[in-house]
Amino acid sequence: MNTTKLEPATALAELKETKPDSVTLVVLSGDMDKAMAAFIIATGAAAMGMKVTMFFTFWGLNIIRKPGSTSSAKDWMRRAFGWINKGGSDNLPLSRFHFGGLGTTMMKKVMKNNRMPGIAELLETAQDLGVQMIACTTTLGMMGISKDTLIDGVDQLAGVSTYLAEARHGSVNLFI
Amino acid sequence: MIPADVKLDTLGYFCPMPIILTSKKIKDLTPGQVLEVASDDEGIKKDMPAWCETTGHEWVGLEEEPAGDKTIYKAYVKKT
Question: Is B28 or A10 the better-scoring residue by pLDDT?
Answer without folding.
Answer: B28
